[in-house]
């Protein structure tokens, strides 16, 4: 290995490598891979049928299924005298997310950014830069929540200062403080989503998991809520909140909202709270949201948008002090047009809150930020809804 590679990667640890190694070890057998492919294609399969379709003796099938089950790759369900096997829900997404986060070996030797965490080579430099800034910001925010035991997440984070007012206090009281007080959002998408028992929900940029936990309760007992986030500290906090709240039908995936680690047409409802504005590739986010939704699926998002003329670059720069919550905000018209281009229909935006001078950061220069914003423009948080056509 070259000196450059040694210096660059000597201390590198890929988050989740230990768990991924266990999974890949169990997968590292031709027969087990054949079984996994069968389960991926057919869903739930009786052990008795696996022998026939994979041309294997029954004791051989049983041995390999035992290894897969002990490694947590498959689940079992007894139906009468038969045992049915299925891939553990979320398994393929987890493996895909882990692989998508690992740059090819050549990238580790290629330059000054070779040790940037979690950036697939396909992302553009701008997307990577924005993600890095956002990830650092929210990693710090998550650590602050943990350090303060959930006392407050908003002290220095103006864009979430009123988030708690969007939620039902009784619902929040049933959750750990480190979830209930850790909303970094600008609304409550779970109000908009009209979730039903049995549905599969995906929260883009799930943060400390508040909306995922609330959604999971609404879709229980047979439904499931996924949270997707790129920031390790947020994922750790969210998983610990889920376990403390005793909510089992949730799964937090590591990945980027521009490349969602879930299969096509696997989700009924996509929610998101104040995250899409942070992405430097919103077309990719909306195309991915469209891909993973089932036909007829709903998008129910809260986000920061600009009503009126787009922000000037001077205003965007000044507002970047505000946790990047506004710098990437689209106008209402741009948001609607992007959703339609992605294939959505019934697109509607509805203002929840208008941010006035008191909500905006002061800025460092002599010019107050409101002076940089077109007098006919407003920064608002909005409900954004859309449907994937049912055919
Ligand atoms: C404003 S916070 C919102 C968190 C949560 N939705 C809430 O309401 O509290 C943004 C979250 O989105 C995540 N995030 C931002 N950009 C992302 C991206 N491109 N891919 C995945 N996660 C992202 C951040 O790590 C952070 O946890």
Task: Describe this entry's structure for a reader.
This protein is an alpha/beta fold. The protein has 2 domains: 72 residues, Arc Repressor Mutant, subunit A (Orthogonal Bundle); 260 residues, Rossmann fold. The protein contains 16 helices and 10 strands. The strands form 2 sheets. A 7-stranded mixed β-sheet has the order 6-5-4-7-8-10-9, with helices on both faces. Helix 13 links the parallel strand 7 and strand 8. Helix 4 packs across helix 5, helix 7 packs across helix 12 and helix 13 packs across helix 15. The longest helix has 23 residues. The chain is elongated, with a radius of gyration of 22 Å. The N and C termini lie far apart (53 Å). The site of S-adenosylmethionine has 25 residues, from helix 7 and helix 11.
Features of this protein?
40% helix, 19% strand, seven-stranded mixed β-sheet, Arc Repressor Mutant, subunit A, binds S-adenosylmethionine, Rossmann fold, disordered N terminus, 391 residues, alpha/beta, single chain
Globally, the shape reads elongated
What about the largest sheet? Answer: 7 strands, mixed
**SSE-based structural type:** alpha/beta
Q: Which sequence of strands runs across the widest sheet?
A: 6-5-4-7-8-10-9
Kindly provide the name of the CATH class of the largest domain.
Alpha Beta
Distance between the termini: 53 Å
**What is the tally of beta strands?**
10
Q: Could you tell me the strand content as a percent range?
A: 15-25%
**Overall tally of domains:** 2
Rg to the nearest angstrom?
A: 22 Å
Task: Please give the share of residues in helix.
Answer: 25-40%
Taking pLDDT < 50 over at least 5 consecutive residues as the criterion, the unreliable ranges are 1-12, 102-117, 153-161
Instruction: Work out the helix count.
Output: 16
CATH architecture field of the largest domain: 3-Layer(aba) Sandwich
CATH fold assignment of the largest domain: Rossmann fold
Instruction: Name every ligand kind in the structure.
Output: S-adenosylmethionine
């Amino acid at each position: 290995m070259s000196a450059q590679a040694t210096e660059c990667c000597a201390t590198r640890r890929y988050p989740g490598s230990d768990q991924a190694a266990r999974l890949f070890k169990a997968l590292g057998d031709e027969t087990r891979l054949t079984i996994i492919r069968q389960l991926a294609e057919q869903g739930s399969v009786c052990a008795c049928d696996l022998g026939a379709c994979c041309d294997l003796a029954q004791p051989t099938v049983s041995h390999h299924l035992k290894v897969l089950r002990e490694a947590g790759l498959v689940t079992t369900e007894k139906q009468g005298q038969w045992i049915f096997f299925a891939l553990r829900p979320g398994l393929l997404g987890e493996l895909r997310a882990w692989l998508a986060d690992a740059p090819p070996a050549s990238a580790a030797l290629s330059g000054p950014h070779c040790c940037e965490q979690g950036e697939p080579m396909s992302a553009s430099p701008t997307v990577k830069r924005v993600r890095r800034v956002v990830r650092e910001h929210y990693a710090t925010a998550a650590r602050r929540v943990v350090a303060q035991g959930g006392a407050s997440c908003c002290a220095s984070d103006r864009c979430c200062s009123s988030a708690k007012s969007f939620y039902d206090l009784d619902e929040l009281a049933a959750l750990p403080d480190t979830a209930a007080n850790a909303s970094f959002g600008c609304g409550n998408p779970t109000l908009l989503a009209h979730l039903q028992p049995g549905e599969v929900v995906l929260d883009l940029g799930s943060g400390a998991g508040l909306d995922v936990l609330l959604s999971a309760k609404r879709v229980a007992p047979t439904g499931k809520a996924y949270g997707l986030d790129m920031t390790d500290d947020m994922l750790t906090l969210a998983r610990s909140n889920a376990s403390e709240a005793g909510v089992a039908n949730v799964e937090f995936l590591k990945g980027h909202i521009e490349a969602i680690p879930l299969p096509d047409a696997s989700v009924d409802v996509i929610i998101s709270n104040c995250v899409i504005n942070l992405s430097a590739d919103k077309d990719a986010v909306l195309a991915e949201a469209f891909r993973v939704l089932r036909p007829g699926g709903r998008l129910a998002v809260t986000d920061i948008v600009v009503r009126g003329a787009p922000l000037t670059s001077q205003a965007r720069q000044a507002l970047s002090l505000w946790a990047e919550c506004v710098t990437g905000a689209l106008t209402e018209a741009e948001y609607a047009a992007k959703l339609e281009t992605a294939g959505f229909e019934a697109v509607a935006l509805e203002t929840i809150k208008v941010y006035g001078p008191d909500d905006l950061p002061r800025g460092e220069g002599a010019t107050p930020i409101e002076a940089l914003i077109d007098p006919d423009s407003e920064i608002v948080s909005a409900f954004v809804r859309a449907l994937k056509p049912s055919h």
